[in-house]
Design brief:
The protein has 196 residues and is an alpha+beta fold. It has helices at 2-17, 24-85, 105-119, 154-157, 163-172, and strands at residues 88-92, 128-135, 138-148, 186-195. Helices cover 55% and strands 17% of the residues. Bound molecules: heme C (HEC).
Length: 196
């Protein structure tokens, strides 16, 4: 009986070494890894396209004209990236310009964590957070990346927004809260969700 036992054991070790059989945990881990790389790709796609459109619009017509671009183009780029990758990517913030970008409970918690991390001296460019969240209707894979305020942003989000720019913003966003930021502060975050 001893040799038989040994061979079962050896077979198990060999199977394990070959990565077989794949456990449910391994599968979940692999899905989470692939979600993370898709999320990073979606955020890069959204961030690069937004920056390109914003810079071109600022150059062509200054900030007043560029506000229209942010208003129409930002949501449509986010939708295109979401559809292409089978997930949802959006921007959100604690202090909002567009109320449609309001954070859900998870996003609020992470945004508050990013604010605390920056206050503790962490580099805002490197802040990201990821979690598998169990909900009533299944599992959600979530990923968030901080958006620091840069110099380019101050024309429309800074403490000293020109009156014509301010007027154009108020017309489209009467409840705007997204001014008064300083360079380096947290402006908001990209947020990616995939339901499973
Ligand atoms: C030309 C003016 C303008 C500039 C410059 C600008 N923004 Fe905005 N920003 C807007 C407008 C308009 C919206 C609302 C977009 C919408 O309706 O979704 C907005 C929305 C946002 C949001 C979504 C959350 C919210 O408050 O609705 C974030 C995050 C954001 N901007 C970050 C930035 C960053 C970072 C920069 C600099 C790289 C920047 N913005 C530069 C006009 C601008």
């Amino acid at each position: 009986m001893v040799p038989a036992k040994l061979s079962v054991c050896t077979a198990a070790i060999l199977l394990f070494a070959a990565g077989m059989p794949v456990s449910a945990q391994d599968k979940a881990d692999a899905e989470f890894q692939s979600f993370k790389s898709d999320a990073v790709g979606a955020i890069k796609g959204l961030a690069q396209n937004l920056k390109k459109e914003l810079q071109a619009a600022m150059k062509a017509g200054g900030p007043v004209k560029a506000i229209e671009v942010c208003n129409t183009v930002a949501p449509s780029i986010a939708d295109a990236q979401s559809q292409e990758r089978g997930l949802s990517v959006r921007r959100t913030a604690l202090k909002l310009r567009n109320p449609d970008n309001a954070p859900d409970d998870f996003e609020r918690k992470v945004l508050e964590k990013f604010v605390a991390d920056i206050a503790a001296g962490k580099d805002p460019k490197k802040l990201a957070y990821t979690e598998v969240v169990r909900t009533d209707d299944g599992t959600e894979l979530r990923f968030m990346k901080a958006i620091p305020t840069g110099e380019l942003c101050l024309k429309c989000h800074g403490g000293n927004v020109a009156p014509d720019v301010k007027a154009a913003i108020s017309k489209l966003y009467p409840e705007d809260q997204a001014t008064g930021f300083k360079a380096g502060e947290l402006r908001g975050a990209f947020s990616v969700t995939k339901k499973q």
